[in-house]
Amino acid sequence: PARPFGADRSRAPALRLVGADDPTAAVLLDQATAAEQGSRRDLARDLAERAIQRAREPNEVPVLAAALLAAARLASAAGETGVALDILEAALASATARGSHADCARAASLRSRVLWEAGDLGGAEGEAARARDWAHRAGDLREVAQCLRTLGALTVARGDLAGGIALYETALADFRALGQASELSATLVSLG
């Protein structure tokens, strides 16, 4: 409202630029990542969900894809398997519609882990195989090797030790060829 000239300005609210307090989807995702790394999962999930709501522009598609995966991972960590699977279904639908094999691979890979943790070994194995195929199409050799490691573990869990070891050996060779020492170590530890 208008104030008469000379009115007391000490009680006037501070000026605020429209949108100044509204962080971008990318900033929210960065904050969610930092919160998750700091073991502040509730805050991380809230920030990831806000990033999903905020990502509306075509140039924010990668942020949206990453925020969906973060929200699903955090929902799974909170024991909300159904919510995590619903989010991953949305992530897969979005990635498929965009034709992004890499995003499909990441979503299917996480879906595989969520299903495995929920005790659905058959579903987990199917998702890991789909993730591997999408990763191949995307040319993401690291993701292919990670999927092979997951498939190896699931194969062993099903009782096929020889088949699981063969998949692990392929994953190890792939990680070696990529120079991925940390992934190589993780694969060797998971054999233990």
Q: Strand fraction band?
A: under 5%
- Helical residue percent band: over 70%
Main sheet characteristics: none
For the record, give the distance between the C-alpha atoms at the N and C termini, rounded to a whole number: 71 Å
Features:
9 helices, disordered N terminus, 0% strand, 74% helix
3D structure, described in words:
The protein has 9 helices and no strands. The protein has helices at 25-37, 41-54, 61-77, 81-98, 101-117, 121-138, 141-157, 161-178, 181-191. The longest helix has 18 residues, at 81-98.
Write the layout of secondary structure elements.
Layout: H1 25-37, H2 41-54, H3 61-77, H4 81-98, H5 101-117, H6 121-138, H7 141-157, H8 161-178, H9 181-191
Task: Briefly say what this structure is.
The protein is mainly α and 192 residues long.
